């Protein structure tokens, strides 16, 4: 290496001048979550709340060296923001960034000043420099919001050490703002959120770079590992967090360089979480460092080669002096998607199936097979597998069959349906092809392949039919979904009205007082409850992910949960939800009995969580039923006759009625008698698949998702119910609301009423009375809660159902 190039100044900017920019969904997520998080802070403005006062008092009691630290933190944060602007001004080709960062700062400062003014605080005190005197405490610190916006807007352009330094200074500065009395904690949190939202908004408006290395930087990094490269050219992005480059080694070999960049924006924490939730097959591995990911890819490639799988040889793997992990492999062929027609005509497609079979026989699955990761070899008419970074060394039958389905689709897209099916059948046989058929769904494919299939001249239905015909079997049928009828809508409305009427009569509710309560309600709190309602499905989606061993993406599962809300209102029968559940999982290749088993496991986990909540509240000192609450303007207890006895009697009567109706109605009795034998037969006929489906109970991560999702769901529902009660100026302990919600869920679950419509509202009214809520408020709050979490949820549920249909998930 040239001695003059041994020393070079450390990089400050993570991407080259003029690097391509993207608008990222994570910025949308930051804007939405930031604005939602601002809502409760605005509600307590200008404060201080009790927590604000206590935290401020604790920090302001720290004197001496702490006061110096607060002053240094103030100055350090402001100086850091100025240094970032100065660096962009002095760097060649970076002056445009100054305007972008100042735009973010102006947006944040204006928003913070407006928010401070609306809370009754002028913005000017928050702009004062902490110089030893205590500034008046304000709701929003405009200066902190401005500095946060500059740091947030600059982050994608900077190398990771500078990002970490800026974020550390922000956190220290936030504490200093409270400790020096410039703002209360709520105001500091609001300033931070405003700054983050402003930075994300600018990224959405103008885009942000991927932070990829240039070809020269890649060559310099690999020179330190003893590999000399020339003609280093970047490829189009294929995997989040991994940059690929074509290059030529000193001995003339063509090589592929994969860089797991230290500064790559897709490797940042929030972006990695987003990719892990919404991408399947191409997602980065959370919990693995860059070095671990590169080593895993190299190890998987070497193990595959030892098993006789044709795959590109590893040239070098290691870390550069800048902290980037690199993997270099030799280029031995052309991807199927780019292979010329003459090469495709003479290639032996069955060789790809034999290679995949050898990989599976070695106890590995590829996990990312598509038309770009299957290669046509240069020196022989055969196929090879490349890019084993997503390979798993512990396999399941589901994962192996998914590999096979993806290989069949990849070869069919490149060489045609007939040749692809014939090659697969020659290796898999009739039985193996039959197992692959359910997996020939768009939902089982990776994102790039789904797009390619959608843009192609044929669809998966044609491939599935051709494969079934070649194997001599019928294509697997999908569960039929019921449609919305006028009858189901009438049931939803009439059932609720009748139940509320009966409960009101039973509890002797004064309707004039209900009207009075509704007219005096704080409607902005009811609107907040409606905004919080969709977050219930954010939690329940995790429990669904935990109930299945199959790797699903969070996005479609979340849409499925919203669609369930629509089905629960529009088609209030158990059959409607079951049909949707089975159809959804069938799109991922899961057989109908196993889909039912997944739903049962999810429901059982919810029941276990409910029982645990009952035990926790019953065996501890947490408030339960009939304990006094704070209600009304004077804070006095609001009970007017409700009791636990009423609630328990209603629960027992409901269980008895459900049992009597089930035994008395012949159709219900026959369904119950047929249920257990059918379930036993289904599990016995799919014993291996059932064992894999139940294997989730042996995986701590899956158990955590199952239980954690259900716990979060119960708590969020209790919080929403609390907000509904607060709209009528009644405040109930959270444990009491959790108890009411659990008992109502159990009660509605055993009642023989489709969807629990009507009986759930009545149970909430009685349950709220049992914790001391006045009758009029109990009726009003119960109706508001059910409107927000059930009936109006059908609106976004209908949109989710259309999304699922459009993307062929149902």
Short key terms for the protein model shown above:
810 residues; alpha+beta; Phosphorylase Kinase, domain 1; Transferase(Phosphotransferase), domain 1; 4 domains; five-stranded antiparallel β-sheet; three-stranded antiparallel β-sheet; 6% strand; disordered N terminus
What does this structure look like?
It comes from Cellulomonas fulva. InterPro entries: L-PG_synthase/AglD. Keywords: Cell membrane, Membrane, Transmembrane, Transmembrane helix. This protein is an alpha+beta fold and 810 residues long. The protein has four domains: 21-209, no CATH class; 215-330, Phosphorylase Kinase, domain 1, CATH 3.30.200; 333-471, Transferase(Phosphotransferase), domain 1 (Orthogonal Bundle); 486-806, no CATH class. Helices cover 61% and strands 6% of the residues. It is built from 31 helices and twelve strands. The protein has a five-stranded antiparallel sheet with strand order 3-4-5-7-6, with helices on both faces. Strands 8-9-10 form a three-stranded antiparallel sheet. The chain is flat and about 85 Å long. The two termini are 59 Å apart.
SSE topology:
Elements: E1 21-22, H1 25-43, H2 50-60, H3 65-90, H4 95-118, H5 142-154, H6 160-179, H7 185-206, E2 208-209, H8 215-223, E3 229-234, E4 242-249, E5 254-260, H9 269-278, H10 290-306, E6 314-319, E7 325-330, E8 333-335, H11 341-346, H12 350-361, E9 374-377, E10 383-385, H13 397-415, H14 417-436, H15 447-455, H16 460-471, H17 486-506, H18 511-520, H19 523-532, H20 535-547, H21 554-570, H22 574-586, H23 592-619, E11 630-631, H24 644-664, H25 666-685, H26 687-694, H27 700-726, E12 730-731, H28 734-750, H29 759-770, H30 775-791, H31 793-806
Antiparallel strand pairs: 1-2, 3-4, 4-5, 5-7, 6-7, 8-9, 9-10, 11-12
Helix pairs in contact: 1-7, 3-4, 3-5, 3-6, 4-5, 4-7, 5-6, 5-7, 6-7, 12-13, 13-14, 14-16, 17-29, 18-30, 19-27, 19-30, 20-21, 20-23, 20-27, 21-22, 21-31, 22-23, 23-26, 23-27, 23-28, 24-25, 24-28, 24-29, 27-28, 27-30, 28-29, 29-30
Organism: Cellulomonas fulva
InterPro entries: L-PG_synthase/AglD
Pfam families: LPG_synthase_TM
């Amino acid at each position: 290496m040239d001695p003059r190039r041994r020393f070079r100044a450390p990089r400050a900017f993570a991407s080259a001048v003029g690097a391509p920019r993207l608008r990222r969904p994570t910025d949308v997520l930051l804007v939405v979550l930031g604005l939602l998080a601002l809502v409760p802070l605005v509600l307590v403005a200008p404060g201080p709340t009790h927590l604000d006062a206590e935290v401020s008092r604790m920090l302001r009691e720290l004197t001496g060296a702490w006061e110096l630290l607060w002053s240094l933190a103030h100055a350090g944060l402001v100086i850091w923001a100025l240094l970032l602007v100065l660096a962009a001004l002095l760097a060649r080709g970076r002056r445009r960034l100054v305007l972008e960062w100042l735009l973010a700062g102006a947006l944040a400062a204006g928003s913070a000043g407006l928010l401070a003014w609306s809370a009754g605080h002028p913005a000017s005190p928050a702009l004062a420099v902490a110089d030893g005197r205590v500034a008046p405490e304000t709701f929003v610190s405009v200066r902190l919001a401005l500095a946060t916006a500059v740091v947030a807007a600059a982050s994608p352009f900077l190398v990771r050490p500078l990002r970490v330094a800026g974020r550390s200074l922000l956190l220290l500065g936030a504490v200093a703002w409270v400790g020096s009395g410039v703002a209360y904690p709520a105001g500091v949190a609001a300033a931070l959120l405003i700054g983050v939202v402003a930075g994300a908004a600018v990224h959405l408006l103008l885009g942000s770079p991927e932070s990829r290395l240039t070809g020269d930087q890649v060559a310099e990094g690999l020179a330190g590992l003893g590999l000399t490269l020339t003609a280093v050219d970047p490829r189009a992005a294929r995997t989040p967090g991994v940059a690929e480059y074509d290059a030529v080694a000193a001995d003339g070999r063509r090589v592929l360089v994969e860089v797991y960049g230290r500064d790559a924006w897709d490797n940042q924490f929030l972006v990695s979480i987003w990719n892990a939730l919404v991408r399947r097959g191409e997602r980065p591995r959370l919990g693995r460092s860059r070095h671990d990911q590169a080593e895993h890819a190299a190890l998987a490639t070497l193990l595959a080669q030892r098993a006789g799988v044709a795959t590109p040889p590893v040239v070098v793997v290691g870390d550069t002096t800048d902290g980037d992990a690199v993997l270099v492999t030799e280029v031995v062929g052309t991807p199927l998607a780019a292979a010329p027609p003459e090469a495709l005509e003479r290639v032996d497609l069955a060789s790809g199936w034999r290679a995949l079979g050898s990989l599976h026989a070695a106890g590995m699955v590829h996990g990312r097979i598509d038309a770009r990761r299957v290669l046509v070899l240069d020196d022989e008419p055969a196929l090879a597998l490349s890019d084993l970074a997503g390979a798993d060394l512990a396999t399941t039958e589901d994962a192996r069959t998914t590999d096979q389905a993806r290989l069949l689709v990849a070869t069919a897209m490149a060489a045609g349906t007939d040749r692809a099916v014939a090659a697969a059948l020659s290796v898999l046989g009739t039985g193996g092809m039959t197992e692959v058929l359910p997996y020939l769904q768009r939902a089982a494919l990776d994102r790039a392949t789904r797009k390619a299939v959608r843009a192609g001249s044929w669809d998966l239905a044609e491939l599935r039919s051709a494969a079934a015909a070649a194997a001599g079997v019928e294509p697997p049928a999908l569960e039929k979904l019921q449609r919305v009828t006028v009858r189901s809508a009438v049931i939803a409305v009439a059932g609720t009205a009748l139940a509320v009427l009966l409960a009101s009569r039973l509890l002797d509710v004064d309707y004039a007082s209900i009207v009075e309560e509704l007219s005096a309600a704080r409607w902005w709190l009811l609107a907040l409850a409606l905004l919080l309602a969709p977050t219930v499905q954010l939690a329940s989606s995790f429990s669904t992910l935990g109930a299945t061993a199959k790797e699903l993406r969070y996005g479609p599962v979340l849409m499925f949960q919203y669609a369930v809300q629509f089905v629960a209102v529009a088609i209030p029968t158990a059959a409607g939800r079951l049909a949707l559940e089975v159809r959804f999982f069938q799109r991922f290749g899961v057989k109908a009995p196993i889909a039912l088993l997944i739903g049962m496991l999810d429901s059982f986990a919810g029941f276990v969580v409910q029982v645990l909540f009952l035990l926790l509240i019953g065996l501890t000192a947490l408030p339960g039923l009939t304990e006094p609450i704070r209600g009304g303007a004077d804070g006095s207890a609001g009970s007017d006759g409700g009791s636990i006895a009423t609630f328990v009697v209603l629960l027992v009567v409901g269980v008895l009625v459900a049992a009597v109706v089930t035994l008395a109605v012949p159709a219900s009795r026959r369904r119950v008698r047929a249920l257990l034998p059918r379930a036993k037969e289904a599990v016995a006929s799919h014993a291996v698949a059932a064992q894999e489906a139940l294997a989730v109970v042996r995986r701590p991560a899956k158990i955590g998702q199952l239980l954690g999702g259900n716990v979060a769901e119960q708590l969020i529902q209790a919080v929403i119910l609390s907000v509904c009660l607060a709209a009528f100026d009644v405040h109930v302990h959270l444990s009491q609301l959790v108890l009411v919600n659990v008992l109502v869920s159990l009660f509605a679950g055993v009642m023989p009423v489709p969807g629990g419509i009507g009986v759930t509202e009545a149970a909430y009214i009685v349950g709220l009375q049992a914790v001391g809520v006045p009758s009029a408020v109990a009726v009003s709050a119960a109706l508001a809660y059910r409107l927000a979490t059930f009936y109006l949820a059908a609106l976004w549920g209908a949109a989710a159902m259309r999304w699922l249909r459009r993307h062929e998930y149902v």
